[in-house]
Amino acid sequence: MTGDPPTGYPGDAATEAPRMRLDYAFLCDAATQHAGKVNALGIGIDHIGVSALPALHPRLTLVVRLVFEGAGGASLPLVVRMVDADGRDVVTPVEARFDVRAAPGRQHEAATLLVDLLNLQLTTTGPHEVQVSSTGTPIATLPIEVGRVAAA
Question: What pLDDT digit, counting tens, does each position of 32-52 carry?
């Protein structure tokens, strides 16, 4: 990945890449998208309880909605990480390229990103974060606390 800013698509009338803003971001148990609508289960996760360490948490889903304003398009590199308090990865970082192009006649376009973080290897209690960034610039940071709970 490079630190270069997003670029417009060749042949676009606008040479400037659209401006991006975060509409919302949250963690949940699971999410799907159909016809432009997000369906999410267990919205608002900010704590994971473990009875012993190390622990394996099977699934956490990140939902991010980005709004792009201005004509043209962009191809953005995105990175999603979950880290512990020491900055160590809890799961392998997810790296992808995200292509956005405004539909003809529209000045803004929204895009929703759903990322399943699977098999989280939890080795410490305390603060953790799910981080979303593009070209080294933070887009969203979602705190999540890992704490001990009594065994069932």
Answer: 999 989 999 999 999 999 999
Asked whether residue 37 is assigned to any structural domain, the reply reads: yes
Q: What is the pTM of this model?
A: 0.83
Model pLDDT for residues 101-143, shown as the tens digit of each residue: 777 777 788 889 999 999 999 999 999 999 999 989 999 999 9
CATH of the domain at 80: 2.60.40.3880
SS (H, E, C) the chain: CCCCCCCCCCCCCCCCCCEEEEEEEEEECEEEEECCEEEEECCCCCEEEECCCCEEEEEEEEEEEEEEECCCEEEEEEEEEEECCCCCECCCCEEEEEEEECCCCCCEEEEEEEEEEEEEEECCCEEEEEEEEECCEEEEEEEEEEEECCCC
Domain region containing 33: 19-148
